[in-house]
Amino acid sequence: MEEVREYRALFAVDIVGSSGRGDVALGQIRQVLSAALHASFTRGGVDWETCLRHDLGDGMRVVAPAGTPETSLIHPLVHELTARLRAHNLLAGTPTRIRLRMALHAGSVQVGRDGTVSGRPLEVLARLLDAEPVRAALAQAPEATTALLVSEHFHETAVCQGRPGIDPAGFRRVDVREKEFAGSAWLHVPAYGGAPQATGSAPDRTTPDAGAPAGNTKVISKASGHGVIYALGNGTMNIDGKK
Which of 156, 216, 142 is nearest to 185 (CA)? Predict the structure, then answer.
């Protein structure tokens, strides 16, 4: 079957602690995650229908269309997805709450006419998704909904420039050693309310909360979708149904 080699941006998510919840709860979680991904990609200007998607059972791998800017897979996508899942968790019971590990990479892959994708970049993406630093980040911050690990290459092309909505200071360099992969990557844990660390434009921000953990400022995040979500860095969230 004819294949073409194309440079693509790659995104993957995995649900933390999905095993043992039962088929009904896992089915509900998968539906919520799929809808949140769809809405968040659309919000970021990435056509969900033209993405090549691979169901991982308790997560999903998404290959963005050729020509998709890497930056669009960080802002607003990552923070939009975080805000949507956090809003879901406020109303969900324990079995259907969602926390995610996320990974981003980009590279030249083989794309078949049937939508199959192969190549070394996918292996790197899988290793980043399973890496200890991103697992530890969520274990050490139970209030966090998501944690993101981006490859060195993706960091250089999409993060370092400090585009609006992407703050390089919000990423921490870590060492990754997973199976045959060894190298550096960059860890980012979105603010507990899912608010972007925006640069280039003044975000809505209050003064730091002296009672909050170090590095947690009180922020207000407006997320599209059902109403407006106001999130505080100390984990408090209010939902205003006004649009």
Answer: 156
pTM of the entire structure?
0.78
> What is the tens place of the pLDDT at every residue in 194-209?
333 333 333 333 333 3
Residues 106, 119, 170, CA angle at the centre, nearest 5°? Answer: 25
CB atoms within 10 A of CB 130: 18
The DSSP bridge pattern shows strands 100-112 and 228-231 to be unpaired
User: Is the N-terminal amide bond of 69 cis, ω within 30° of 0?
Assistant: no
pLDDT at 20: 81
Whole-angstrom distance, CA of residue 161 vs CA of residue 168: 8
Closest to 169 measured CA to CA, from 178, 177, 160, 156? 160
Report residue 115: phi and psi, to 5°.
Answer: 90, 0
What does pLDDT average to over the chain? 82
